Amino acid sequence: MNYEGVLKKMQTENGSPIQYYLVFENDFLNVNQLLDKKVAINFLRYQCLNCGLQKKIYRQGFCYDCFFKIPQAADWVISPEKSKAHLDIEERDLEFEKRVQLEPHVVYLANSSSVKVGVTRKSQIPTRWIDQGAHEAIEIVEVPNRYLAGITEVALKDHVSDKTNWRTMLKNDIKDENLVEWRTKLRQYIPKEAAEYYLENNSETNLQFPVLKYPEKPKSLNLEKTPFYEGVLKGIKAQYLIFEDNTVFNIRGNEGYVVSITVN
Ligand SMILES: [Zn+2]
């Protein structure tokens, strides 16, 4: 079987285990069904996710020009505390910014390699946790806009990490944490503006990834250096495909790359 299209992050469906889908223009592929099969990935060309042109991908699936122009790639996306739509201040496109930033947001604790704090739109739960490879997560506050979530995250970063170690996450070198206890401990550091939005009744969400065998020494596949790769798929975690020979392929890190995928 042969599939071809531009890579975008896999769509997911929570379950036991989580289901992953690659969605191409003409093909729809349930990646779980490729487990234990030989899968070949062939890099064909670039295709910017915004303009569609065959231009080198700069970041997040966008070419250089689009990355510095479109509202989806502005600073507040990565740094929520820089959000200004709640003040009616435009960054790149106020209508877009209001639509996204003025939605309910959640600050959460997720345990993927260690406990970290993060921000997402409420509608992105549990998708965001799956994308990060968290085996457990919990909400801390639910606030009416991205700015409040951002300043809460910044305040909590002084007391808990905000990074995932992808190697540790993929090796599954993890331990279970009591996230309710973490949340209780961190409550005192929530800024005044967000304190009333503290969630004390939610319980931990546990996530189950479809992995048959975790890699011992994950090596990341880089399509620029290795435009053709073939291996037996052994698992899917976060947005990574995990192969039998310790190769791991970050789908999200390769958005905007057109590939053909052959399954034997
Ligand atoms: Zn572009």
Secondary structure: elements and pairs:
Blueprint: E1 2-6, E2 11-13, E3 19-23, E4 28-30, E5 38-46, E6 57-59, E7 62-63, H1 64-67, H2 75-78, H3 94-101, E8 105-111, E9 115-121, H4 127-132, E10 136-143, H5 146-156, H6 166-171, H7 179-186, H8 192-195, E11 205-206, E12 219-220, E13 228-237, E14 240-243, E15 247-250, E16 257-263
Parallel strand pairs: 12-15
Antiparallel strand pairs: 1-16, 2-3, 3-4, 5-13, 5-16, 6-7, 8-9, 8-10, 10-11, 13-14, 14-15
The structure holds zinc ion (ZN).
Zinc ion binds at residues 48, 50-51, 53, 55, 62-63, 65-66.
Features:
264 residues; alpha+beta; 7-stranded mixed β-sheet; 4-stranded antiparallel β-sheet; 16 strands; 19% helix; binds zinc ion; DUF2797; DUF2797 domain-containing protein
